[in-house]
Amino acid sequence: MDTGSTSNNVQPLPTLDCLELRTHPQRGRGVFTREPIPKGTLVHISPVLLFGAEEYSRHGKFTQLDHYTYCWKGGCFALALGLGSMFNHEPFGQENIGFVRDMHNEFIKYTALRDIAAGEELCICYGPNVWFDVITEVANKNSSAQQQRQSMSEKAEEDDNGTNFLRCFDL
After folding, report:
1. Is the C-alpha dihedral spanning 70, 136, 147, 153 positive or negative?
2. Burial letters for 54-64: b for 16+ Cβ neighbours within 10 Å, e otherwise?
3. Residue 81: beta bridge partners?
4. How far is CA 100 from CA 38, 55, 141, 149, 165, in A?
5. Strand, coil or helix: 149
6. Which of 8, 26, 31, 163 is the most buried (most CB within 10 A)?
7. How far apart (Å, rounded) are the C-alpha atoms in residues 157 and 136?
8. Domain ranges of the chain
9. CA-CA distance, 48 to 89, in Å (whole number)?
10. Distance CA 18, CA 84 (A)
11. Spatial separation of the C-alpha atoms in residues 31 and 88, rounded to whole Å
12. What is the distance, to the nearest Å, from the Cα of residue 34 to the centroid of all Cα atoms in its chain?
């Protein structure tokens, strides 16, 4: 992992060298790993591009940006740059990557939630109310267990500020 310079004007944005974009036959482009990733590994840090609430409500929500933004402090919305906007979705409890919004530094940090095998796709949970049909990599789709996990997902999506970014969306 290259962490770059550490001078006061430079903020390193670590990304594992083993990550790559690939096209999944059903899910489209996504992030995959060429090497195993141990649980707890910092996988990627994405800087964000911020949009004010008024600008977003007048323009952004009518574009593809609406599917890629996170709620941010002060009523703003944030677009994750780099690989941050390329992680596909897995339902709560099936994702292998977690994320935390770092409001102070304007980053989103992505971390391995479990050991991840070489060749595996890295996925986050978008929340319980996605706007598309879920195509999951997990073979067992027990609907009652999935509903229970989804009802718990709102609590699980809290970040370092204790706020739930999903509450900002009408997904």
Report:
1. negative
2. eebeeebeeee
3. none
4. 18, 24, 27, 19, 10
5. helix
6. 31
7. 19
8. 19-168
9. 19
10. 15
11. 8
12. 19
Q: Dig out the tokens for 149 from the structure.
A: 């996990």
Give the DSSP H/E element, type plus range, for residue 77. strand 77-80
How big is the chain by its Cα radius of gyration, in Å? Answer: 16
Mean pLDDT of all residues in 31-57:
92
* φ, ψ for residue 156, nearest 5 deg: -70, -20
Nearest-angstrom CA–CA distance, 44 and 98: 11
Burial class (CB in 10 A: 0-12, 13-18, 19+), 126: buried
Residue whose tokens read 């304007």: 106
Q: What is the pLDDT of residues 129-169, one digit of tens each?
A: 655 565 655 433 344 334 433 433 333 344 544 444 433 43
Sheet holding 69-71, edge to edge: 69-71, 77-80, 42-51, 107-112, 97-102
Separation of alpha carbons 134 and 53, rounded Å: 29
**Quick one: tokens of 144?**
């009652």
Q: Mind spelling out the 3-state secondary structure of 22-60?
A: EEECCCEEEEEECCCECCCCEEEEEEEEEECHHHHHHCH
Class level of CATH domain 19-168:
mainly beta
The pTM for the full model equals 0.70
State yes or no: pLDDT of 36 exceeds 90. Answer: yes
Joined tokens for residue 145: 């267990």
